[in-house]
UniProtKB/TrEMBL annotation:
Annotated positions binding S-adenosyl-L-methionine: 255, 282, 302
Origin organism lineage: Bacteria, Pseudomonadati, Pseudomonadota, Betaproteobacteria, Burkholderiales
PANTHER family reported in the protein's UniProt record: NOP2 YEAST -RELATED NOL1/NOP2/FMU SUN DOMAIN-CONTAINING, RIBOSOMAL RNA SMALL SUBUNIT METHYLTRANSFERASE B-RELATED
Domain annotation SAM-dependent MTase RsmB/NOP-type: ranges: 141-418
Low complexity: bias regions: 435-455
Segments for region (Disordered): 422-463
Amino acid composition bias (Basic and acidic residues), ranges on this chain: 422-432
Gene Ontology MF: a single term: RNA binding
Name of this protein: 16S rRNA (Cytosine967-C5)-methyltransferase
Keywords from the UniProt entry: Methyltransferase, RNA-binding, S-adenosyl-L-methionine, Transferase
Record InterPro entries: MeTrfase_RsmB-F_NOP2_cat, MeTrfase_RsmB-F_NOP2_dom, RCMT, RsmB-like_ferredoxin, SAM-dependent_MTases_sf
Length: 463
């Protein structure tokens, strides 16, 4: 679309609000667009892309904006628009002084800037990553984190195969191809309006990063099993697990947020799954969880984390998180993992996962857990993926990196409770506690009654 001066002012207004860092940038952006309903789809795209470009390259742009005229926010806005819409698009709407400054800035080679500005990462994150990568690879990672993520979909095998989905997208004029690793993954070119497609309305696919899809492959749930998605959120992984189970068995989606679970409801309706039971809990110690202790075959713990693996989508997180917030997260992650582990039968599998790239939230938490629970053992992610015929080797731990795998940054550890499941004898059943007896005879509907969510808002990723 043709840029106009009005959009520059709107972009500057939104950027000034986002840079206060009082909340998530995507939430501030959605709120701004609701308050300005006359902005069209293309106009929203121009504004959002420019604001997020500033967030991704904030240190670099702030360095460049030390020169120039106008307010600092104005200069950052023009740099964001130049990076996304192009200098020619904004030239008619800026002063001669601003045009001359932009021409000067455009000639500066980013590689000539100080390393700190090139990386566009806070010093504390750089220090944490320097223990894992040499300087050259750290620069590659930073570059990958500072550009937008591709759009990945997961074909829903309950409704359509990946080939059928690709044909449907092609007929709608949308280019796409298979993702490198995930068996149901599709990577789409551009940012098409997917929610208008019949294939979306009919539940043929969900928007889901390939890395997130692979986490579900690590859990490898089987038909007829009892499975728990311990921190289900809006249910993207829940739906993937349910499809892998072919809508059989029982799949509990636990979360402490009614709003997040509410977003699962319309997605679940589209999916065609009948084995998913959303359950609102008050914490990882909720009585609804205690009733299932020792009864579950597989548990996915996608733990609350810093989200630093998703900087391609949420670049504001690197400016909103801090060493102090990470220090507060790790004990909570360990508590959640410990509580979820109690649900497993002997021989059951648990996958602890985060979308973080920091060892403090990942390997360190798993090590602490294993040191305190000798009845659990680490299973090689390499072997699990090979069993699932996924051609990907990240070692004993599952670690995905944007610069290596073109996915978000993900971590996972596959844990197994040692020993084979032993059926209870008649005597053991007779001596079971009331809580255990209730769990053994409990129907899926009984648990699902726990404050069912109301109707959800449209998925933000599809707007």
């Amino acid at each position: 679309m043709r840029l106009h001066g009005f959009l520059i002012g709107q972009t500057e207004t939104l950027l000034a609000d986002v840079l206060k860092f009082t909340g998530p940038a995507d939430a501030a952006t959605s709120r701004f667009f609701r308050e300005h309903p006359k902005l069209g789809h293309a106009e929203r795209g121009v504004i959002a892309e420019a604001v997020f470009a500033v967030l991704r390259r904030r240190m670099e742009f702030a360095h460049l904006a030390e020169s120039g005229t106008g307010s600092p926010t104005r200069r950052l806005t023009l740099l964001g628009l130049m990076a996304t819409a192009g200098r020619g698009a904004i030239r008619p709407f800026v002063s001669d002084a601003e045009a001359n400054w932009l021409e000067h800035v455009a000639k500066i080679d980013p590689a000539s800037l100080p390393l700190r500005q090139q990386l566009n990462l806070p010093d504390w994150i750089v220090k944490a990553l320097e223990t894992r990568f040499d300087a050259a690879e750290l620069a590659q990672l930073a570059a990958a984190l500072n550009y937008p993520a591709p759009l990945d979909l997961r074909a829903n095998p309950i409704k359509a195969s990946r080939d059928e989905l690709l044909r449907s997208l092609s007929q709608a004029g949308i280019e796409g191809g298979e993702t490198p690793f995930a068996p149901f993954g599709v990577r789409v070119t551009g940012k098409p309006a997917l929610s208008k497609l019949d294939a979306f309305k009919d539940g043929w696919f969900e928007v889901q990063d390939e890395g997130s899809q692979l986490l579900c492959t690590l859990l490898a749930p089987r038909r007829g099993e009892m499975v728990v998605d311990f921190c289900a959120g809006a249910g993207g992984k829940t739906l993937a697990l349910g499809a892998m189970m072919r809508s059989s068995g029982r799949l509990y989606a636990f979360d402490i947020s009614e709003k997040r679970l509410a977003k699962l409801k319309p997605r679940l309706a589209r999916s065609g799954l009948s084995n998913v039971n959303p359950v609102l809990i008050d914490s990882e110690h909720d009585a609804k969880i205690k009733r299932l202790i020792g009864k579950i075959d597989r548990v996915l713990v996608d733990a609350p984390c810093s989200g630093l693996g998703t900087l391609r989508r949420n670049p504001d997180l690197k400016w909103r998180q801090s060493p102090e917030s990470i220090a507060e997260l790790a004990p909570k992650q360990l508590s959640i993992l410990t509580s979820a582990a109690r649900l497993l039968k002997r021989g059951g599998r648990l996958v602890y996962a985060t979308c973080s790239i920091l060892e403090a939230e990942n390997e360190a938490v798993v090590k602490q857990f294993l040191d305190a629970h000798p009845d659990f053992a680490l299973v090689s992610a390499r072997d699990v993926l090979a069993d699932q015929r996924v051609d990907l080797d990240t070692g004993d731990y599952f670690s995905l990196w944007p610069h290596r795998h073109a996915t978000d940054g993900f971590f996972a550890a596959v844990l197994e409770r040692r020993g084979d499941a032993q059926p209870k004898t008649k005597k053991a059943k007779a001596e079971a506690t009331p809580e255990e007896a209730a769990a053994a005879g409990e129907t899926a509907d009984a648990i699902a009654k726990a404050q069912q969510p109301e109707a959800a808002e449209p998925d933000a990723a599809l707007e």
